[in-house]
Specification:
The protein contains 4 helices and 2 strands, in the order αααββα. The chain has about 110 residues and is mainly α. It has a domain of about 70 residues: Orthogonal Bundle (Arc Repressor Mutant, subunit A), CATH 1.10.10.
Amino acid sequence: MTPRELDLLQGTLDVLVLRALSWGPKHGYAITQDVAETMGVRLSAGTLYAVIARLEARGLIEPLESDDRRRPYRITMAGAEALAQQSERMSKVASVARERLSTRLGWAGA
């Protein structure tokens, strides 16, 4: 995988986790369940915790106190802003793709 492909994959995973946390604090298993149910993507524990570590280091999420071994995380204001910006970019990409499929390739499903 090229560095550019890795950046794209990591960015997509970051958005999936931030989106899951935008509905409220969740612990790791609840994040994986949310992503699987809403997006059809299954995250392994190793992948999820790499994403969590990256987002926490960037100040986009923060851990909360917990009474048991499961540590919940919540999105920060910076994380909400990053999610909004990435969502807007993704919407633009999807819009252009639909337009091109429709006008240039005659795809009616767009």
